[in-house]
Amino acid sequence: MHASHLDAVRSAHIGRRTNVAAVASSPRAATGGANALSQSMQLMGATMAYPRNSEIFGENEPADYLYKVVSGSVRTYKILSDGRRQVGGFYLPGDIFGLEFADEHTLSAEAISDTKVLIVKRSTLNALASHDASVAQQLFALTGRELRRVQDRILLLIKNAQERVASFLLEMAERVSGNAIELPMSRQDIADYLGLTIETVSRTLTSLEGAAAIEVSTSRHIVLRNRSALSRMNG
């Protein structure tokens, strides 16, 4: 993220300085349950718009903020030493990203399409968590999910091409809660996520369609016709 953009993020929070104790005791934040973290972020955060392919934050920049996708979609990625791009993950509306185990971002993040993101200062959320057990529990659960995602990714990259593509389609179907998937990302994004070439991804999708496991209506719209078959392919 360039300095000017960092300034824009900081400016978005001017006037949004929040009394953490007041948020913790507010009716919305005090309801607990699955929405406490989301409600607190809404109260304390600022929304920013990012055009398609624009950077949200960069690798090795301070991880001072936590982000939630309001609309659009986001990819995280790393440029490897040989110039190849490795996509780390995709984030859809409602997903929270930017959570780090250190003080700096290990990956960069970009808007895949025109995207709106809710941004909250990490230190403010940590302070709120010390007052609100529900928020603390959900931050802990979010950390656990990110760790699981990293572990799943390690396992994904030792599978063959068909297993990787099947795993990706099942993951996306689970996230959209249905068999019809409208992919916001390009085939190149998918290839860089799965550690494959774009030709291999396209060839594997064609093979899966020929086996009646999926239906490829367009390059972005895919319907899972036989989830059991995909699950078997996933290993």
Describe the structure.
It is a single chain. The chain is an alpha+beta fold. It has two domains: 3-156, Jelly Rolls (Sandwich); 161-234, Winged helix-like DNA-binding domain superfamily/Winged helix DNA-binding domain (Arc Repressor Mutant, subunit A, Orthogonal Bundle), CATH 1.10.10. Helix content is 45%, strand content 22%. The protein has nine helices and eleven strands. It has helices at residues 3-13, 20-25, 36-44, 122-131, 133-156, 161-176, 187-194, 198-210, 227-234, and strands at residues 46-50, 55-57, 65-71, 74-79, 85-91, 96-97, 108-111, 115-121, 180-182, 214-216, 221-224. The protein has a four-stranded antiparallel sheet, with helices on both faces. The chain has a four-stranded antiparallel sheet with strand order 2-7-4-5. Strands 9-11-10 form a three-stranded antiparallel sheet. A hairpin with a 5-residue loop joins strand 4 and strand 5. Helix 4 packs across helix 5, helix 6 (161-176) crosses helix 8 (198-210) and helix 7 crosses helix 8. The longest helix has 24 residues, at 133-156. It starts with a helix and ends with a helix. Residues 28-33 have low confidence and may be disordered.
